[in-house]
Structure formats: C-alpha cells, structure tokens
Amino acid sequence: MSRYRTTFNPATGEHIQYVVTGLESKGAVVRYRWTSDPEGSIVPHTHPGSAEIFTILQGEATFIVDGEKILLTPGQSAVVPAGIVHSEANVSGRLVRGIVELTPASRTAELHDALAGISSDLPHTASGAPKSPWQLGATFWAFRNDIRATSPPIWLQNILLPVLAVGARALGVSPTRSEWDSRLEPEDPAVELLFDERQFAVALQQAGYDFDIRHPRPLLISGSDGSATNTV
Q: What are the chain's domains?
C-alpha cells in the first residue's frame, strides 16, 4: 500500500490524508481522513463522474446537498450522487473529523493535491481558485470530469476554460506540480497520522464501516439505519 502525507488547503480549511486511492483500488475508490477547521467551508460544486460519501466521526458539519440542508454528527453519513451540487461548512466552532470517499476514484487524489498546492503556493481567491487565468484554465479544464464549480455557469466555463487551457500549455503552465503530490516514496520516513480512526470505532460502525478503512473495497451504505445515514 502506498503512504500519503497530509495536505492542507488554507482556502477551505481542509486537511486531507489518503488511505486508499485509485492506485490501490484499481480505480474503484479514493478514501481519505478529513478534517475541517472551524469556519472552514467548501463552495458549491459537483463531481460529474463520482458519488461521494461523507462520514462524520467527531464534531458537526453542515452540508447543503441539492438545496437541502443536512447536519451531520458523529456516526452519520451523507451520500451525494454523481453530478449533484453540494457544499460544506463548519460553523460549529470546533474541529470536525471524518472519512470521505468517492467512487469511482477517478483523479480525485491528484485533484485535491493540486487544489491544496494552489491555495498554499499561488495567489488565489477566497474560495481557493487560482488568480492566474492560465492556472485556472490548466487545472480546472484538466479536472473537468472530476469537479465543476457552479459559478460561473457551466456553459460559460465550457467556452472560457478550454481557451485558457490552450494558452496555459503554450506558456508551460501545468494543471498540477510534482511537489504537490502527497504520495510518499518507499524510502521516506514514517509520517504522523492526521488522526487515528480506531479511536472512533463506534462512529465508524454506526455509519456502515465494518472493515479497516485501508481496505480498498468501496463502502456501500444501504440506508437501512435512518439514524446513521442520510441518503440524498
């Protein structure tokens, strides 16, 4: 199994450490430890080709999924089908810890590494988008099948982003950078876990995790326990 360092996106307040990516699951799933800092937020967006499952282990997270407000507490999950607009905010004033997975994996790991890198190393907007139009075109057009912001409208993105992407290639601007890759080399020393999920075994079981989260098999939440799962 590959190992991954924790990345931080200062624009969204997210810390992410992968436990399974498409490399280990043969494209089936990407799964990661996730924390959201107090006042952290993720703007409305969609994942065109992947369903997403948020499982809360500690704290409270507020989601807007297809216009519906959902408050998740420990042991609860929200299933967001592919293509559905959703956003997240941590308004509780406390750190939120959770497990997130997307299936199929698509290029989610590379995308999140790029977004964290942009927000850490490059001039960016409050939502984390690069201020450089060339970086914007390069990154968001390359990952258009993995994520779509809802603003500007998709039809306008389909006009502007490919033009900017062509300009980016001419200028040598890449969608991502090698130094943003969170995968560790075999010779790299051990890294600290973002958190040890075994401390939240009860919440994981309530949400449907009946196996080690490092197992590459995608989680299937049946929704049979309404108190533990919100299927949207």
A: 7-106+184-231 (2.60.120.10), 109-180 (no CATH)
